[in-house]
Amino acid sequence: MLIDARNVTKAFGAFRAVDDASVSVEEGDILGLIGPNGAGKSTFFNCLTGDLPVTSGSVSFAGADVTRLPPEARAKLGLARTFQVPLTFESMSVLDNATIGALLRHHTAREARAKARDVLQRVGLGHVTDAPARSLGTPGRKRLEIARALASEPKALLLDEAMAGLTPTEVRDAIELVRRIHGDGITIVIVEHIMEVIVSLAQRVVVFHQGREIARGTPREVTSDPKVIEAYLGRRKVRHA
Amino acid sequence: MKRYLFPGALVVLALVYPLLVAGSPVWERLGALVLLGAIGASAWNIVGGYAGQVSVGHSVFFGFGAYSAVVVYTHLGWPPIAGAPLGMVLSVLLAAIIGVPTLRLAGHYFSMATIAVAELVRVLSSTSEFLGGAQGLGGPAMPRTVFDLSFISATPFYYIFLAVLAFLLGLTWWIERGRMGFYLRAIKDSERAARSLGVSSGRYKLYAYMLSGAFTSLAGSLYLCMFGFVDPESGFGILISVKMVVMAALGGAGVLFGPLVGALILVPLEELSNSYLGGRGAGLTFVVYGAIIVIIARFLPSGLLSLFERRPARPPAAKNQPASGHAD
Description:
Chain A: One of its GO terms (molecular function) is ATP binding. By secondary structure, chain A is an alpha/beta fold.
């Protein structure tokens, strides 16, 4: 078990954004987290990465209890992430962005830069290494966030709506990229709105609704689950004349 | 070779400047003051510019340095410069004490906390008998040995300051190119993203703050050696902090030579207004700084040096079109 979250609850005051969620991810998995808006997916995701401390429950990563560890300590253990709204380092070049990630496993800036170049090439940003990160559009930024995360040589990569705001063609390219990353032996957790992405990528899916897990299984299983359909589309009302 | 011509010429000019203005005390003094201002602003730049943690209370370190220098003279009879290492050590400790709780604060809240600390220390210092109270303390009136650094001309100070500034800029350049430089800029751009990539942001911000504090303190000690006097206002006053911020921001915060450029403009301006307006000019200095802050914020958020760095802002697409016919 690479990631094991048990009975995680995250409360903001009286409101439980995540309520007693238990999710585990095997090494080599691609796990999809889906659910309608406000379901608590992103909150749960941020509990896994350490951006939000849990109210109760525990999170372990690669056999270590990381419940109380800050995000940087989890990153050192091999947990990398991207952000829903890209947080690229805007004042830096594309190469420097990736170099920051690579410095986690490389001692000198020179070695880190070489690793960064390599990763940028792999994600398809090799032609813009010297451009400022702020010159990239949304797809470029999302790619750069993935490159930066990969440069830190993670065991698991957590993607928070990495496809949001992309055109259908860009989504297909991005899916291809995630497949390749997974092929390199990196475990993937992906939070996503777009069903197409989940169906074509994830081996297992966990569905959140109002902070609770309501279904889990293969993409096919959950998309035909009446509870999931209800959560997304609402209850079918039958009117009698 | 051409790219070394301009910087090379500047270095030579800096080295021979006192010879060019020899015999004119006003100009000799001005040169030394520009360098002293540049040392303070460059020290501030490490934490305020590179790491983006805008301290507006750096006078607390400047004052520590100035008072350390004068205290070792007043109470121990040592030459004031001997107090410089003491001031630096105390400032590093102080930075750790202030930094651990306040560097967690974001943006403006950090700035306000640093102002509060500096003002607190200023008020405390004016009530301290040991520090000479509101009257302040003076260094040796007559030089006893050469170590008292009581020179009639400002030229020896000029070269001392130049050496310190060169060392500080060299150190900053070295940091900028290494892991810490990358990490500080990452923290400035997005601390959350930096942490997600394994950057211990709290630790690096603290390192930057301590280093910055140490060199600001050295600037304070050097100030005392040259002026031979410090009181709570000239040591811990908020104008000291504001000057560092404005110099760095004017030239370019987070840019190696930004603070030096800022000092080259602001220090002569200040000396000019002081000499022409005399005592009435004191209040006007604040007005001038206020106006400069407004102008920078509105028109030049990245400082003057950003005007010469248009190249990186050019869209990268041009590089992929060999047919475009641009020579560069």
